[in-house]
Amino acid sequence: MYHHMKKISVLLFLIVSLGVLSACGNNDNANNTNSTSSDGEVYKLKMANQVDEQNFQNQGYVKFKEILEEKSDGRFEVEIYNGGTLVSSDEETVDALNSGTLELATVSAYGTANTTGVDGLKLFDFPMFFKDRDELYQIADNELGDQLREQVAENSNVTALGFVDMGFYGILNSKKDARSPEDFKGLKIRSSTADLHLETLEAMGANPTPMAYPEIFTGLQQGTIDGVTTSTALIYGDRFYEVAEHMTLTNHVFLPHLMLVNNDFYNGLPEDLKEIFDESAQEYIEHARNLTIEAEEEAIQGMKDAGIEVIELTDEEREAFVKAVEPVIEKHIDTVGKDVYEQALEQLGK
């Protein structure tokens, strides 16, 4: 009897042991499955802008989508919302990025400044401050630009990956050829809500009229506004010249955008994908800058071909605008920060 009970005990032990080993094996398989699933996770992100699908800015977004999805072998999926379908202003865009409604977008320096409190970014809106885009890049891509991007991350739930060049501002109007500040006197010119943009137009004699970007075409068509100031490439890309025929290449301010990404999304990426994301962002920024240069050239020639009077200022005519806007810069040095202003002057050798 004793030997019989012993055999049963041994048999039960073996059965239990096999059960435990089997359970462990199942757990290992489950862990391996989870690990594989985690490694293969697809990260989806939404991008948004306020321009037409064919606009060079949106085409830059499309290129970023291609770069990112290809480099990651499909582990990133990008959805693009254009034409103001998801956001209709820079401020709305930054709010959406902060909350995570959007993962990625490019936003004007002034829009970023207004929503994050990094007033140093308003330096880029100083009228007639940068004589060419090389000077813009000299600030944006070096120490001062890095400092400003770091402040954005400190003040918000977004990371600024770099600066995208959206081109020089020009002024399109439906009333007359304009070669001097006096020629703009009394004209209702659509502007952003940025203080510097409003005051610059006032200094030029115009009547600045803020309006949401998607409403500009209709505003020009219906005579609610007499003109618009934004980058020359955007004026052409969004076909505003179809309802206004006088274009002045004032080049009075640059339109740099910051490429902004939601921190929760960005910091939650695995290291290998974060590296791919950063590489793709820098490749996009370089591509977008080249797109802008090409778009400006195409815009100027395209408007001329369409019969638009495109006025390129002489040095003497430009100097009249420089003098007209000097008080605007003086007024806002303290807003931007005297240290930021002086650092910029030093870097530019002015």
UniProtKB/TrEMBL annotation:
The keyword Signal applies. InterPro entries: DctP_fam, TRAP_DctP, TRAP_DctP_sf. Pfam families: DctP. Residues 1-22 form the signal peptide. The keyword Zinc does not apply. GO terms for biological process: transmembrane transport. Coiled coil: none annotated. Keywords: Signal, Transport. One of its GO terms (cellular component) is outer membrane-bounded periplasmic space. Belongs to the bacterial solute-binding protein 7 family. NCBIfam families: dctP (TIGR00787), TRAP_S1 (NF037995). This is TRAP transporter substrate-binding protein. The lineage of its organism: Bacteria, Bacillati, Bacillota, Bacilli, Bacillales.
